[in-house]
UniProtKB/TrEMBL annotation:
Lineage: superkingdom: Bacteria
Record keywords, A-Z: Electron transport, Membrane, Respiratory chain, Transmembrane, Transmembrane helix, Transport
Entry keyword annotation includes Protease: no
Record-given protein name: Cbb3-type cytochrome c oxidase subunit I
Organism: Azospira restricta
Entry's transmembrane regions: 27-49, 69-92, 104-121, 141-166, 178-202, 234-253, 265-282, 297-317, 343-364, 384-404, 424-445, 465-492, 530-552
Cellular component GO terms, alphabetical: membrane
The UniProt record lists the keyword Transport: yes
MF (Gene Ontology): cytochrome-c oxidase activity; heme binding
Ranges of residues in domain Cytochrome oxidase subunit I profile: 28-502
GO biological process: aerobic respiration
Alphabetical list of Pfam families matching this protein: COX1
Cross-referenced InterPro entries: Cyt_c_oxase-like_su1_dom, Cyt_c_oxase-like_su1_sf, Cyt_C_Oxase_1
């Protein structure tokens, strides 16, 4: 199929015409779903805030279901489709394989996401994100998810095909770039995730229309978490790839060791899905041997992979900064990093919050004995808000500050607000996640709309600290929503009113990447062997924090042993 290639004059990135259109449309629809998810977040947070209790129970669970589906699936996976096309066609400077199938991906996901949302807002599918049987949703709830998943699977197929095209046309030499390798990891995990989802959603759909009598609840939970948790591993792989991309473009950073970083991505493929076991540790149907093997052995290989990225990404930044001359003391490289660049600041806040809050809390939840204290408490949404929101969503927001000028050819409006937004959103969400976990540690329930159980014949007196934590959750949650709304305003406003930028030269075939451009930095190979003492100190701080927090939770656990 005839096509053209546009070279962005500022970055040197080359956009193939079909890939460019698909990236734009997937990214725009992603932002629209983030808007819907943000509106539903207002209803969720203002209801769980004890001082307000905005919604009655039936409306709360409807809104909570929509919030989970739209944020965890619709917003993130639409954006990830754009990331896959970018990491393949743009970074490898090749035509997109089967662009017509790319449009099939897009429209299946649009139809599926709309169909599922229609089912939710009709009020008969308030089964929450997990949709555990025997709760039953309307048939078009499940059918929409199936169509959405098939579309995403087709998008992964187009991505794999584009890698084959690049190899065949010899548009790159050696291995694929690090960012593309991270996207490949995400796509491989996505195939496993989607096939697992099909394995449980198809029979559940048939059950909802009456063709199957019943679905075994324990079997459903086990197979569903192969979809539900593994879908978050797609996000981890994608946002870690963006962690490597942004420093490469902004300051020319190279990984400390390409082989080690690629090995960490490989460990994600082999072991990360096993982390889904932590959702099943309180289930009686799973054997003790299965629980111990998954959470006490295999899962830690995935944890090790994230720790490797947690060292190599800031290490790459430090090495690049030291090469630029910021060599005084341990942290001059960090003090003089480009904190005024929202792409960089958003990426770094994402890295720190994901590591210190999401990572440490995830390991705690993966410990079987401690999990018994935390499983059905507010601790769990606190954990995944520090992984999926400050980890994935903030990383996606950060890279958008680079993509709006290069992909959409528009200058960002309100530069000062752009600088503020990552701090407002990232710090507020980090605090929100932290106090959510604090409330969960005190026993506040995960799914009940009213922690006070108003009107119940028997009242439970929560400690004042629990109400304080939930009040802080509401307060900082609202600030987070404001930060998210600001990002949507800045992005949409830039697309509508931002100054038009020069599109760049167009040719009928890819051209060599100009040297010393961000595109060259993002697609280069090689490792940086500069010493990184500052990063070593930061990593040791993470490990000390982890050890201390881990043993604090064993202290909490020891307090219930007297009950036996």
């Amino acid at each position: 199929m005839a096509t053209t290639y546009r070279t962005c004059p500022a970055s040197g990135l080359q956009f193939e015409a079909h890939a460019e259109k698909l990236m734009k449309w997937n990214a725009v629809v992603a932002v629209l779903w983030l808007l819907v998810g943000g509106i539903t977040a207002i209803g969720v947070i203002m209801t769980r805030w004890p001082a307000f209790k905005l919604l009655p129970p039936d409306q709360f669970y409807t809104i909570l279901t929509a919030h989970g589906i739209d944020m965890l699936l619709c917003w993130i996976i639409f954006f990830e489709m754009a990331v896959l096309y970018f990491a393949s066609s743009v970074l490898l400077r090749c035509r997109l394989a089967a662009p017509k199938w790319g449009w099939v991906q897009f429209w299946l996901m649009v139809v599926g996401s709309v169909m599922t949302n229609v089912a939710i807002f009709q009020g008969e599918s308030s089964v929450m994100f997990t949709s555990y049987v025997p709760m039953q949703a309307a048939p078009h709830f499940y059918l929409g998810l199936i169509l959405f998943a098939v579309g995403a699977l087709i998008g992964c197929g187009v991505f794999f095909g584009t890698l084959v095209v690049a190899k065949k046309d010899k548009t790159y030499t050696g291995s694929i770039p690090m960012v593309t390798f991270g996207a490949l990891t995400a796509a491989i995990i996505a195939v496993f995730t989607i096939l697992t989802g099909a394995g449980i959603l198809l029979p559940t759909f048939l059950w909802s229309v009456g063709l199957i009598k019943e679905i075994d609840a324990q079997l459903y939970r086990m197979v569903w978490w192969g979809l539900g948790h593994s879908s978050q591993q797609i996000n981890v792989s994608a946002h870690v790839a963006i962690w490597y991309l942004i420093p490469a473009i902004v300051i020319g950073a190279k990984p400390l060791s390409e082989k080690v970083s690629r090995g960490a991505f490989l460990m994600y493929i082999l072991f990360l899905q096993l982390a889904s076991a932590h959702h099943l540790l309180s289930d009686p149907g799973m054997s003790a041997e299965w629980k111990v093997l998954n959470t006490s052995y295999f899962m830690y290989f995935a944890v090790m992979a994230s720790m490797i990225h947690g060292f190599t990404v800031p290490g790459a930044i430090e090495a690049a900064q030291r090469r630029k001359g910021f060599t005084n003391g341990l942290f001059e490289w960090l003090r003089k990093a480009p904190w005024g660049n929202p792409a960089f600041s958003g990426m770094f806040i994402s890295l720190v919050s994901f590591g210190f809050l999401g990572g440490i809390s995830g390991v705690v939840l993966g410990t079987e004995q401690i999990n018994m204290l935390m499983h059905n408490t507010f601790y769990v949404p606190g954990h995944f808000h520090t992984t999926v929101v400050t980890g994935t969503t903030l990383a996606f927001m950060a890279v958008t500050y680079l993509l709006v000028p290069t992909l959409f050819k528009r200058e960002m409006i309100h530069p000062k607000l752009c600088q503020i937004q990552p701090y407002l959103f990232g710090i507020a969400m980090s605090i929100t996640g932290l106090v959510m976990m604090g409330a969960g540690t005190l026993g506040v329930s995960r799914r009940h709309w009213d922690m006070a159980f108003s009107g119940a014949p028997f009242q439970y007196e929560w400690p004042g600290a629990a109400y304080l934590m939930m009040g802080m959750t509401g307060f900082f949650g609202v600030i987070t929503i404001i930060g998210g709304a600001l990002w949507i305003y800045l992005v949409v406003g830039s697309l509508l009113w931002g100054k038009k930028l020069e599109g760049g030269a167009v040719s009928d075939k890819p051209t060599p990447i100009p040297a010393a451009t961000p595109a060259a930095s993002a697609s280069h190979h090689g490792s940086d062997h500069v010493g990184v003492p500052g990063t070593v100190v930061l990593v040791m701080a993470l490990l000390v924090s982890f050890v201390l927090y881990y043993f604090v939770n064993w202290k909490y656990l020891s307090e219930v042993w007297l009950l036996s």
